[in-house]
Design brief:
This protein is α/β, with parallel strands linked by helices and 416 residues long. The chain is built from 15 helices and 16 strands. The strands form four sheets. The chain has a six-stranded parallel beta sheet, with helices on both faces. Strands 5-4-3-6-7 form a five-stranded parallel beta sheet, with helices on both faces. Strands 1-2-16 form a three-stranded antiparallel beta sheet, with no helix packed on it. Helix 4 packs antiparallel against helix 8 and helix 13 runs parallel beside helix 14. It is globular, with a radius of gyration of 23 Å.
Length: 416
């Protein structure tokens, strides 16, 4: 398909989503909850065609993708059940209050801060079919329409999820199924087109590999499109001299339960006094997990993200560091800033680490794998934003997908 044809396809999807948006804006909370609950049930009832589509995607990916990426692509009954659980939880969460605050002004006026839906939000993601439902549900909950775009690897799975689950659930709940659109083309030009329509799709959620996400973010900025970009990850774990040894080894293992995710253990820092004594046990634990340790002298930057290194995902960088504050500063300077954790029984060391670390999520005696919208906030996420600027940061959920508006009215106005 030509670039112009793909761009036209994206624009058509944007216009269709905008036309359907009205059905969401005024929808009662019960109707939205009904739609989300129906999505959860359809994940079970329509599992066969969804899993068949996913098997076709997996077959096409065989021999062309690393194991960690194939794991992200895979759906099974257990993962569908987990997705359904999150949908049911989301359905039961309260809608954001439209009025955030109110303050009196001089002259008999009041100012109200209100939330308004963005309108149409785009989403671009790679081989993660579950994101189709994650983002669609967040958009519906926040009363936004959407245009979703994924690559060739997950397009069959995403299409089945939209056609068998999302669209039918919206229609059965009395909402317009066209509110969530999918770009039915694997062409990469679709991603560029998605971030080039500021009047139609003013905000795009971007998830994927660092290079791709950064390039799309730059393209979006050139067109005046705002992004919530999830480009880089790589969790850090610092083991303090006052750490419980067994807890430290357990957290190393818990941080590596999945290798293709952004909040996994990527950089393991050991306090210098522990280096000689603890390193052999760490290496033994890593070997037992099938993980290679990258040890000093490192032929790469310390924050190199192994989850994005095709074929080398089963690697963790291990390095010595002076103390808790030095570990936090190193995490600030060398990594994306997604998450860092300290293992220690020394409260003073923990407080120093948490105060010095400036990243999105900071953890004490717990794993960075907890940096997840559902685990932390009881709501599925659209992604994790690690930007160092004001705005939604960390796990982005439906609560963040709104515009702020100030409304000034007479104090005695009806409803004021």
């Amino acid at each position: 398909m030509s670039a112009d044809a793909v761009a036209a396809l994206v624009a058509h999807a944007g216009r269709a989503a905008r036309a359907a948006h009205a059905s969401l804006v005024g929808a009662e909370a019960g109707r939205i909850a009904d739609a989300l609950g129906r999505m959860a049930r359809l994940l079970s009832e329509r599992a066969d065609p969804v899993l068949a589509a996913n098997r076709a995607d997996l077959a096409a990916a065989e021999g062309t993708m690393a194991d960690a990426l194939v794991d992200r692509l895979r759906l099974d009954e257990g993962r569908l059940a987990a997705m359904a659980q999150q949908l049911d939880a989301l359905a039961g969460l309260p809608d954001p209050e439209p009025a955030v605050g109110r303050r009196e002004l001089e002259g008999g006026l009041v100012v109200e801060e209100r939330r308004r839906p963005v309108g149409v939000i785009g989403a671009n993601y790679e081989a993660r079919p579950n994101v189709t439902v994650d983002v669609a549900s967040q958009l519906v909950k926040s009363r936004n329409a959407g245009v979703l775009r994924t690559g060739a690897a997950a397009l069959r799975s995403a299409s089945a999820l939209l056609d068998e689950v999302v669209g039918p659930a919206l229609g059965a709940a009395g909402l317009d199924p066209g509110a969530v659109q999918l770009v039915r083309s694997p062409d990469r030009e679709g991603a560029r087109a998605l971030v080039s329509l500021p009047r139609l799709i003013p905000l795009v959620i971007i998830r994927g590999s660092g290079e791709t996400t950064r390039a799309l973010s730059a393209e979006a900025a050139a067109h005046g499109v705002r992004t919530l970009a999830h480009a880089d990850g790589g969790g850090v774990l610092y083991v303090d001299p006052a750490a419980d040894r067994d807890r430290a080894l357990e957290l190393v293992e818990r941080g590596l339960d999945r290798l293709g995710v952004c909040n996994r253990l990527n950089l393991l820092l050991l306090a210098e006094p522990l280096w000689d004594g603890l390193l052999p046990a760490v290496l033994e634990r890593l070997r037992g997990l099938g993980i290679r340790a990258s040890l000093p002298p490192h032929p790469h930057r310390l924050g190199h993200e192994w989850a994005l290194d095709d074929g080398n995902e089963a690697t963790v960088t291990v390095a010595p560091v002076a103390d808790a504050v030095s570990a936090a500063r190193l995490a600030n300077e060398e990594t994306s800033g997604i998450a860092a954790a300290i293992v220690t029984e020394d409260a003073a060391a923990a407080r120093a680490f948490l105060a010095a670390y400036a990243g999105t999520g900071a953890f004490w005696n717990s794993t960075t794998r907890l940096l997840d919208g559902f685990k932390l906030l009881a709501a599925p996420e659209t992604g994790i934003n690690v930007d160092h600027v004001p705005g939604p940061r960390g796990p982005v959920t439906y609560r963040d997908l709104h515009l702020r508006q100030y409304v000034v009215v007479p104090a005695e106005a009806p409803g004021g």
